[in-house]
């Protein structure tokens, strides 16, 4: 029996019990490889008719398996990941957005990886997590034995960036998507003799539009044959870069498929491919309306390809409406893993549709999508109602050109009422999760990135998007940076600030405070490396800025349990400027060492 209990503070009384099961020596359960692309549109694949690029490896999954023609995700990244992992609408899981903590998946949710791990699978995730950084939100706390990648919503550089490997900061090796694949291949090799779940959430084609010359040269200067439905909106440099990044994804998918063949695991492995939202720029997408961030067809319709030779008939196209919330019940049923969760599953299994079961039941349904403060839409088997109450016959008008609400007044009234009720339900959950603190002390080491902090005074973020930013422009002694935290375990914590500081500003005094407990240290070493090279970023004037930071030991801070503001200040500045701050790391000092501190 797997037991996951947090007995303090924010998660008091939380208990998840998932019964373990044993394996039959005669019949091995299937492995599972799940690819999740980041910001890849439905139209970014050859199998869907895009002649601007070639994606033979991804397309082969449809040829050798099944394709869902009406598969829907969320308008943006973190909500889709929450729905896929839990089988529940994302607003019920604590996820409401993509930055500043809004992407965190509540610890009382049972994840797909929890279920497979408890059932004896080796579990690994390699890529972008985006459902929480600090324990108990980290992938290692959510059913994964190994994690290599980054937990933020996006990353600022794709060539040998700093990454998280099982909670330790490491430096990546080479182009990030290739590096993630290398680690997934190693995981498969190490665990191929027992069932495994290998989750590969790639970081591309999400911006920044970094891609190596080997893939970009084909698209450099390309005038695409297929364009967005409104060509004036299309940013061609972004299109060219995205197409190159998609071909790189395809190459990496091919590497993993070849590894499965080499290990004779083709027929023993379910392979899934999908994306987390619509395309991140206006480019060809089958004439659909909208892109990432939209709750129209173009923002929500995703590729979904699945292969399991001998079990899922090859070449099937399934037209029933399904979505990310259906993946947990479907994949657990296919794998015969009990889907016993702490909370109700809202998705439904489409395993019988995949297997081609005659007369498989699939009653009409209403699949809702919520994003932002107002955008709420619903998809039925035939129609989509948008956020303004317009009704579209998607079966005959995928591009949403003709509002037919007047033709179907009773249905329109019913759907508007359903949308209002769903929105009201979502808003209640959003309000309940709006003010969650960041957790400290639920693991031996906790990282608090600039992304999760709040600047005060003249301090600013290095970019408009918090996800991969650092704090800069510290010019006054009254300035401060705060983190709203909840300490789950009292004790002594060594505090390390990752900083930069030019020579003229060495000597600044830095203070960290938690309630009445404070520590101070003087910056004695200059460290001010230049911003990383952006020559392979194919879209100019982006807001992504990355540089190296150095560890600065502030000392040992005493933390009591409870909630409050962790505050970083500079009682004295030198040369009129303080340090730039990337993150604070709090490492719990073992009890045997605490005596030495006293």
Describe the structure.
The structure is a single chain. By secondary structure, this protein is α+β, with helices and mostly antiparallel strands. The protein folds into three domains: 31-365, 3-Layer(aba) Sandwich (Alkaline Phosphatase, subunit A); 368-432, no CATH class; 438-597, Galactose-binding domain-like (Jelly Rolls, Sandwich), CATH 2.60.120. 20% of the residues lie in helices and 27% in strands. It has eleven helices and 30 strands. A ten-stranded mixed β-sheet has the order 9-8-7-6-10-3-11-12-4-13, sandwiched between helices. Strands 19, 21, 24, 26, 27 and 29 form a six-stranded mixed β-sheet that branches. Strand 26 and strand 27 (517-522) form a beta hairpin. The longest helix is centred in the middle third of the chain and has 27 residues, at 236-262. It is globular, with a radius of gyration of 24 Å.
- CATH class descriptor name of the largest domain: Alpha Beta
Largest sheet: 10 strands, mixed
Low-confidence stretches: 1-25, 594-598
- Principal-axes shape call: globular
Instruction: Kindly report the name of the CATH homologous superfamily of the largest domain.
Output: Alkaline Phosphatase, subunit A
How many domains, as an integer?
Answer: 3
CATH fold-level label of the largest domain:
Alkaline Phosphatase, subunit A
Assembly of the depicted chains: single chain
**Radius of gyration computed on alpha carbons:** 24 Å
Helix proportion? 10-25%
Cα end-to-end separation = 40 Å
Lateral arrangement of strands in the main beta sheet: 9-8-7-6-10-3-11-12-4-13
Total helices: the number is 11
Query: What's the count of strands?
Result: 30
Broad structural category: alpha+beta
**What is the residue-averaged pLDDT?**
93
């Amino acid at each position: 029996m797997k037991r996951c209990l947090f007995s303090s503070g924010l998660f008091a009384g939380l208990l998840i019990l998932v019964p373990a099961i044993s394996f039959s020596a005669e019949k091995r359960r299937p492995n599972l490889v799940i690819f999740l692309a980041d910001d890849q549109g439905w139209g970014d694949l050859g199998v869907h008719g895009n002649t601007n690029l070639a994606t033979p490896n991804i397309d082969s999954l449809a040829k050798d398996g099944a394709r869902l023609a009406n598969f829907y995700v969320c308008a943006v990244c973190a909500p889709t990941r929450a729905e896929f992992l839990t089988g529940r609408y994302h607003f019920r899981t604590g996820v409401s957005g993509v930055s500043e903590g809004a992407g965190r998946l509540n610890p009382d949710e049972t994840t797909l990886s929890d279920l497979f791990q408890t059932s004896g699978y080796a579990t690994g995730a390699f890529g972008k997590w985006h459902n929480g950084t600090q324990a108990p939100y980290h992938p290692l706390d959510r059913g994964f034995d190994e994690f290599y990648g980054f937990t933020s919503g996006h990353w600022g550089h794709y060539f040998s960036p700093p990454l998280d490997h099982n909670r330790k900061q490491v430096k990546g090796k080479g182009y990030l998507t290739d590096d993630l694949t290398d680690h997934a291949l190693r995981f498969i090799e190490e665990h191929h003799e027992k069932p495994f779940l290998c989750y590969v959430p790639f970081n591309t084609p999400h911006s920044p539009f970094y891609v190596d010359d080997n893939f970009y040269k084909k698209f450099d200067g390309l005038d695409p044959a297929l364009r967005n439905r409104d060509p004036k909106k299309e940013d061609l440099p972004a299109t060219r870069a995205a197409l190159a990044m998609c071909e790189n994804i395809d190459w990496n998918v091919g590497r993993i498929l070849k590894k499965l063949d080499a290990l004779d695991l083709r027929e023993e492995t379910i392979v899934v491919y999908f994306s987390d939202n619509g395309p991140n720029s206006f480019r060809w997408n089958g004439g659909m309306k909208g892109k990432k961030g939209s709750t129209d067809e173009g923002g929500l319709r995703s590729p979904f390809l699945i292969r399991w030779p001998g079990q899922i008939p090859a070449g099937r196209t399934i037209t029933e409406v399904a979505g990310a919330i259906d993946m947990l019940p479907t994949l657990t049923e296919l794998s015969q893993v009990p889907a016993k969760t702490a909370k109700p599953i809202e998705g439904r299994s489409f395993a019988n549709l995949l297997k081609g079961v005659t007369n498989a039941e699939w009653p009409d349904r209403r699949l809702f999508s919520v994003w932002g403060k107002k955008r709420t839409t619903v998809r039925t088997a035939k129609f989509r109602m948008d956020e303004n109450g317009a009704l579209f016959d998607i079966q005959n008008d995928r591009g949403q050109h003709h509002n037919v609400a007047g033709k179907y007044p009773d249905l329109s009234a019913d759907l508007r009422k359903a949308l209002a009720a769903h929105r009201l339900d979502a808003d209640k959950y959003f309000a309940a999760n709006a003010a969650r603190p960041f957790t400290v002390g639920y693991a031996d080491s906790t990282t608090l990135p600039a992304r999760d902090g709040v600047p005060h005074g003249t301090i600013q973020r290095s970019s408009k998007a918090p996800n991969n930013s650092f704090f800069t422009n510290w010019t006054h002694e009254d300035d401060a940076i705060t983190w709203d935290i909840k300490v789950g375990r009292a004790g002594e914590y060594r505090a390390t600030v990752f900083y930069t500081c030019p020579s003229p500003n060495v000597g600044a005094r830095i203070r960290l405070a938690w309630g009445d407990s404070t520590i101070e240290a003087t910056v004695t070493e200059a460290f001010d490396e230049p911003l990383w090279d952006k020559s392979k970023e194919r879209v100019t004037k982006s807001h992504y800025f990355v540089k190296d930071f150095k560890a600065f030991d502030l000392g040992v801070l005493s933390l009591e349990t409870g909630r409050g503001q962790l505050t970083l200040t500079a009682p004295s500045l030198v040369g009129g400027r303080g340090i730039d701050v990337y993150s604070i790391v709090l490492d719990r000092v073992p009890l045997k060492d605490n005596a030495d501190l006293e």
